[in-house]
Design brief:
278 residues, globular, Neutral Protease, domain 2, alpha/beta
Length: 278
């Protein structure tokens, strides 16, 4: 095979590598050959070195109890590198074992490694197995607000590792319970103060996220302090059913929900609207 040098190809590239191999004898083409040409740029080594220098380093750390490794990748969001190392990482390392303790399960070993990738994506964040992906554009606007809390929520999903089909409202509500009532209760992100600021809110126990988190906190305070851990243990084993509410509290979920709604309405009626921060 001849190659002309009209475009300066030979001078630009150092090697032309030919890989010739036999195909399978019983393929559609018979006993033929194929070839592959790999063109290696003469400056490839320099380009690779430059890329490594420009790309923020992916770093790993251990949780506070030393039982889990966390990998944080900000390669696609270099502007968040310092925040990820200095602000996010210490919180994840401290709170992973705390979440494990909040959501225990008999005979269950929580993941010993998970990753967090910061990059431009739709939405806020999502968790798949032991991989968290968070929207770097949204995080960048919330560094002084919800950024870290949103990833504590996702880290709860890493610990949960549920099996089978479970109620979405309970899955997300329990993760928000961990976030708003354990990690950052001082933010008032799901308590009665938050509800008062949402004038048109008509809460139901299975509304998911913050509303369900409030319901779970109410059940934990009034009926069973271990309710969130117990429900998570059942979902982790694929054994959740609605009868568990009566088993642990003596009432069904709808009965608890109705009682909770009345309590919320009473509290809201007696509260003044909190003054907004300047």
């Amino acid at each position: 095979m001849g190659i002309s040098d009209t475009d300066g190809v030979i001078g630009k590239y150092r090697y032309l590598l030919f890989d010739i191999a036999s195909t399978e004898h019983d393929d559609d083409f018979g006993n033929t050959f194929y070839s592959e040409i790999n063109v290696i740029n003469a400056d490839a080594a320099d380009e690779k070195s430059a890329a490594a220098t420009d790309t923020p380093q992916i770093f790993s750390l251990k949780t506070a109890d030393g039982k889990c490794d966390i990998t944080i990748d900000s390669s696609a969001a270099p502007e968040l590198k310092n925040w990820a190392e200095n602000d996010l990482a210490p919180v994840l390392a401290e709170w992973y074992p705390k979440i494990v303790a909040l959501l225990p399960g008999e005979g269950i070993t929580p993941p010993s490694h998970f990753s967090v990738t910061l990059k431009p994506v739709k939405g806020v964040a999502f968790t798949s197995g032991t991989r968290i992906v968070a929207n770097s554009a949204w995080l960048g606007k919330e560094l002084k607000g919800q950024a870290i809390g949103s990833l504590v929520h996702e880290m709860a999903h890493v610990v949960q590792q549920f099996k089978g089909r479970n109620p979405g409202w309970l899955v997300e509500g329990s993760a928000d319970y961990v976030r708003w009532f354990k990690y950052e209760p001082q933010s008032h992100g799901a308590d009665i103060v938050w509800m008062k600021t949402n004038r048109h809110l008509s809460p139901h126990y299975n509304d998911s996220y913050r509303v369900t988190a409030n319901f779970l906190n109410w059940v934990a305070q009034k009926y069973d302090p271990e309710i969130v851990g117990q429900m998570n243990a059942a979902m982790r084993e694929g054994k959740y059913d609605d009868g568990l509410w009566k088993k642990y509290t003596g009432k069904t979920a709808p009965e608890l929900g109705a009682e909770w709604e009345k309590d919320v309405a009473t509290q809201l009626a007696g509260m003044k609207v909190p003054a907004k921060a300047n």
